[in-house]
Amino acid sequence: MRNFILGSDWGEDSDDCVAVRILARAHKNKEINLLGIGINTLTDYSAPSLYRFLEKEGIMCEIGVDKDCPHEIQYVTYQKRLAKETDKTNDDFENAVRLYRKLIAECEGQVEILEIGFLQVICGALMSEADDISPKTGLELFKEKVKKIWIMGGKWDAFPGYEYNLCRYQFAKDASHMFVTNCPCPITFLGWEIGHDLITGDKLSDDDFLHLALADHGSGSGRESWDPMLAVLALANDNKKAGYDTVKGFASVDEDGANYFVNDENGPHEYVVKAKNDSYYSDIINDLIK
Ligand SMILES: [Ca+2]
Predict the structure, then answer these.
(1) What domains, with CATH codes, occur in the chain?
(2) For residue 68, how far is its CA from the centre of ligand 1 (angstroms)?
(3) If you measure from the C-alpha of residue 111 to the centroid of ligand 1, how many angstroms do you get, rounded to a whole number?
(4) DSSP line for 178-219
(5) Degrees (nearest 5) of the Cα angle 259, 262, 268?
(6) 145 alpha carbon to ligand 1 midpoint, in Å?
(7) Per residue in 9-43, pLDDT tens?
(8) Which residues neighbour ligand 1 (ion) by CB within 5 Å?
(9) Which is nearest to 271 in space by CA: 243, 256, 250, 287?
């Protein structure tokens, strides 16, 4: 079975909730093994709210949070309501970089990592030194154990592209540049242009807690689908079957967070381009989350 780690800016937007439901259900159905989720934003409610959300989904996995995250979310929306339903606090959970190291090192076989937020946690894991978890550096662990990385990030229909996850904050720019420059693993990017204006989550029942999370964020009539589209693409593990054309080559992110791409059939990176009408993707997502 494929092993997944998810990285999310949980709490910032509500499409992360849609993606987590899709992955939680795939885990519950034994299609994947969701080892853990690392949150790359920080509020008092971060890890407790995700813990409660997973409880409601009927699964549990390891949860970590970036306790050193420099970015404070201004509007905690669904986090606060969910966190009030549990006694957990962030102190009950690992620092996310440490969790990544642990999950990668201890995983039997290889692991795939999905990122639907900022990249400082996966970058921290990649650049980490040997420690009590493993005598291997992050780079050694990634080379040996990380089969593939899926990133919702970048804007790949114009170069340079500027997109939120890769360049909204200075720490995000620094992490995106360092990570893409140093990562030894294949990366598939799903860019902003893919999920923009593609609304999902608009057909949920009013009492569904996913609907409530979307509504808390002001997206009760649906939200754009960047993160769930990455989840569906990763689960399919076949770009063409998932409804995409693929452009292969070498991606880069400069120190300003701008993304670039050089086409090359033998390159380690790829980005996807929609090959179907928007309703094709939204129907799949809405069917998976209903
Ligand atoms: Ca996100």
Answers:
(1) 2-289 (3.90.245.10)
(2) 19
(3) 21
(4) HHHHH--S-EEEE-HHHHTT-EESTT--TT-HHHHHHHHTT-
(5) 90
(6) 25
(7) 999 899 999 999 999 999 999 999 999 999 999 99
(8) 9, 16, 116-117, 227
(9) 250
